[in-house]
C-alpha cells in the first residue's frame, strides 16, 4: 500500500493468448462457438450493469453489493460453462487445473480480507449505538461520555486493517495470472481458457476497487488492458474508465472516507461532536435533536448496507469454494489425475468473522 503508483502494464509479455482463438474461429464447432459467444455476451451484460447511473453511486455500499453479486454470477457462469462443455476432469491439462486452483485460493484470501474489514466497520456500528443511547438520555453527564465515545469511533474507523494491507500482493498475483497457458490440442480447452480470462479480468478489477475503498488508497486501483477484439472489451473499458476517474477524484479530495454511507455518518458525527464541545443550551436544543436523529438515520443505513454487502461477499466466497471443491473432488475420483502439488492446495479457508 506504500508502493508507488504503477503505470498500465501489458499482460502479454509471453505472447497474446488470444491468437489461439480468432474472433471467427474455424477451429471451433458451431456448438462450442455458440457456448463461447453466449458466455461472453452474458459477461458483457453483467459488466454493463456496473456502469453507475449517477456518480454518487460509485463506492456506495449498494453499488459494491451489486458488483459482488455480479462476480458471483460470473463465476456461476463459468461453472455452468464447464458443465456444458462436458470436459471430463481427466481431460483437463495440468496447467489449466493449476491456474483454476491457484486463482481460487487467492480469491478466498481476498474475500476473507474484505470480510475482516466489514467486521471492523460493524464494530464501529456498535460504538455508535452506544453513543446514540447516551445522547437520547438527555443527561449532561451522559453527553460528556458520548463525546468521548464519538472521538473513539473516529479513531477506530480511521485506523488501518492489517488484513486489507495484504490485498495488493494478491492483486499483483492475479494480474500475473492473466497470462494464460496456451491451448494447442483441445477446442473445449480453448473455450474454457478464454472464458476464464474474462472472468478473471472482471474479478481482478472489481477486487481492486474494493481494495482501494477499504484501504483508503487509490494505489490499489488497477488499470487493466484487454484485447479490443473481445466482445466484452468495450463495456469493460467504459466501466473501468468511469469508475477509475471518479474514484481517483474522490481520493484527491482527501476525505475521511471514500465509502458514501460512512461519509454521511461521519458528517453527522462531526456536527454532533461540535455541538457537544460548545455545550447544548436551550437555543441549540432543536438543532441537537435533529442532529441525533440524522445520526441514527445515517447509521442505520450504514449498518444495513454493511450487512447486505457482507452477505454478498459471503455468497461469492461460497461460489468460489464450491467450484474449487467440486474440481478437487473430481480429481480424487479420477485417481492419479491429481498431481500432489494440487492436492496440497486444497486448503479449507473459512470466512473471517
Q: Could you outline the blueprint of secondary structure elements for this entry?
A:
Layout: H1 30-48, H2 61-85, H3 94-135, H4 140-158, H5 167-176, H6 187-215, H7 233-252, H8 260-278, H9 285-333, H10 340-343
Our Rg estimate from Cα atoms comes to 24 Å
Order of helices and strands: HHHHHHHHHH
Number of strands: 0
The overall average pLDDT, rounded, is 84
Strand content: under 5%
What overall geometry do the principal axes of the alpha carbons give?
A: elongated
What are the low-pLDDT stretches, counting only 5+ consecutive residues below 50?
Answer: 1-26, 337-353
- Number of discrete domains: 1
Our measurement of the CA-to-CA distance between the termini, rounded to an integer number of angstroms, reads 23 Å
Biggest sheet overview? none
Structural class: mainly alpha
Share of helical residues? 55-70%
What is the count of helical runs? 10
Descriptive terms for the model:
353 residues; mainly alpha; disordered N terminus; 0% strand; disordered C terminus; elongated
